[in-house]
Amino acid sequence: MIWAAFGYNGKTPIIWFPPKANAATYQDILEFVLDKYGDEIGGENFIFQHDNAAIHRAKTVKAWFQAVNIEVLTLISSKIFGEF
Question: Which of 32, 50, 60, 76 has its CB surrounded by the most CB atoms within 10 Å?
């Protein structure tokens, strides 16, 4: 599996991680990449967006975003509105 991020000022390198990644693995990637590239690619007060994958919704990941004061864009499930 791969992970990358982009913003209006640039992009991160592609990060390879295990196909059976868990919330801890995802959080490790976030800590490494966003600490190093977050402000550079998205500005000082960027808003992070990810999809509704289970590891993205984990309590530990949500708590980490709050602890480091990174705003996360809330996505509404397509199950509520149906397919477009």
Answer: 50
pTM: 0.78
CA gap 12, 3 in Å, rounded: 9
Tell me the two tokens of residue 4: 């990358």
Confidence of residue 17 (pLDDT cuts 50, 70, 90): confident
> If 0-12 CB within 10 Å is exposed, 13-18 middle and 19+ buried, where does residue 2 land?
exposed
Secondary structure in 3-state letters for the chain:
CEECCEECCEECCCEECCCCCCHHHHHHHHHHHHHHHHHHHHCCCCEECCCCCHHHHCHHHHHHHHHCCCEECCCCCHHHHCCC
**Tokens in use for 57?**
């919704």
CA–CA dist 6, 24 (Å, integer): 22
